[in-house]
Amino acid sequence: MSTPLDVAALRARLAGRYAKLDVVASTGSTNADLRGATQDRTVLVAEEQTAGQGRRGRSWKSPDGGLYLSALFRPDGVPAHRLPWLTLLAGVALVRTAASVGVKAELKWPNDLLVAGRKAAGVLAEITPDHGVIVGIGLNVAELPPDVEPGAGGLRPTSLQEHAAEPLDRAEVAGTLLDELAALEQDWRAAGGDPGSTGLLDEYRAHCGTLGRSVRVELSGSHSSGSHSSGSHSSGSHSSGGRSSGGQLAGSRSSGARPSGSQLSGTALSVEVDGTLVVRDEAGVSHTVSAGDVVHLRVR
Question: In the record, what terms sit under GO molecular function (predicted)?
Answer without folding.
Answer: biotin--[biotin carboxyl-carrier protein] ligase activity
